[in-house]
């Protein structure tokens, strides 16, 4: 995907276009390497991605696909945006699913969850 990150985030928030991410992350014919690259590209922009109904669905699918290594990268990258996420209805739900509060208070316990 050669689109700038801003366009990718916008795609995730439009009904007809978010299905592209849905299909990429759910399709058995897409290689894990491609899925992993997609998740890695969203890591530093995940707080913007999950700030909406459709974007949070994409974020949930990325989280479900992510390996333990990727989850250990996603979690800390979102901890600096905890206040932003709690101000957003869908971001708050994503942070809850991620156990972001536990990550901020007890990172060692979060890694073993």
Explain what you see:
The chain has 113 residues and is mainly alpha-helical. The mean pLDDT is 90. The longest helix is centred in the middle third of the chain and has 13 residues, at 53-65. The chain contains 10 helices and no strands. The radius of gyration is 13 Å and the shape is globular.
- The count of DSSP E runs of length 2 or more, i.e. the number of strands, is 0
Largest sheet report: none
Estimated helix fraction: over 70%
What is the number of helices? 10
What is the element string, with H for helices and E for strands? Answer: HHHHHHHHHH
Task: Compute the separation of the termini in Å.
Answer: 33 Å
- SS class: mainly alpha
Shape: globular
The poorly predicted ranges are none
Q: What is Rg?
A: 13 Å
Please indicate the percent range of residues in DSSP E strands (runs of 2 or more): under 5%
Average pLDDT, rounded to a whole number, is 90
What does the secondary structure layout of this molecule look like, with pairings?
Elements: H1 5-12, H2 15-26, H3 32-42, H4 46-49, H5 53-65, H6 68-79, H7 82-86, H8 89-98, H9 100-105, H10 107-112
């Amino acid at each position: 995907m050669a689109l700038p990150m801003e366009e990718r985030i916008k795609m995730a928030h439009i009904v007809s276009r978010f299905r592209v991410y849905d299909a990429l992350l759910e399709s058995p014919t897409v290689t894990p390497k491609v899925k992993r690259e997609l998740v890695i590209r969203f890591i530093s922009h995940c707080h913007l991605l999950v700030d909406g109904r459709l974007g949070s669905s994409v974020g949930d699918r990325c989280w479900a696909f992510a390996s333990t290594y990727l989850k250990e990268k996603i979690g800390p990258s979102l901890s600096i945006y905890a206040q932003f996420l709690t101000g957003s209805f869908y971001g708050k739900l994503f942070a809850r699913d991620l156990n972001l509060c536990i990550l901020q208070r007890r990172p060692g316990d979060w890694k073993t969850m």
